[in-house]
Specification:
A hairpin with a 2-residue loop joins β1 and β2. The chain is mostly beta strands. The chain has a twelve-stranded antiparallel beta sheet with strand order 6-5-4-3-2-1-12-11-10-9-8-7. It is globular and about 40 Å long. It has one domain. Helices cover about 15% and strands about 55% of the residues.
Amino acid sequence: MFKYILIFLIFFSSSVFSKTIDLEYDVYAGGLRGLNAKITITLKNDNTYEISSIAKTTGFIGTLYYAMMKYDTFGEIKENYFKTSNYIYNAETRKKKRTKNIDFSEYKDYVDYQTVFLNIISHITKNDNCDLSNNVYSGKRFFKIDFKNTENLNIKDKGKGIYQGEAIACNVDIESTGQKDYGWFFDQSQGELKAYFAKIPNLDNKIMVKADMGTLGHGNIIAYLVKAEIKEN
């Protein structure tokens, strides 16, 4: 389950540019709601940004496996490109807790998980396609995330998310660049990763409305956007 929380946090996105956005996603595993994530993105007048997200297991899955992850990202915006300055990560399960605080001044060619999708949203909004790569540092691993266009999807999942209709579809490939042992995070044998983006009425930019994140056991892992609100700065 920890793997799928990490993948989900890579798969979140937001509408940006002079807005504060509150987003909420539900993630289903084999049809059961297993994870809830709340994300807030704040842009400041000095061309800096902050992202705060909390993801927790919930429902029946949460009773079997409790996990919580909190990410805080601080960065700057230059020519519509989002660049991480500092990244704080806290996670806990019933058995252990982990904390990381990373200064990205030593990793100037890399961004963190959360900043990846601010950059893909900026790219999709400007170019109406997914073709973009980002180099990412997690605090432990170096890797590249590639987004590639695939056939658009007409989303019809009633009762799960707030969006129904046509969406831009992106294949997402994660490739290790810093170590020989790829490990579980780079194992995509359990299915392709796909993210779907669309504009919803109360937001200015296309955001992620759905994500397919492979399989767990005999069930698919799917994330849906369930809430999106704008607050003026």
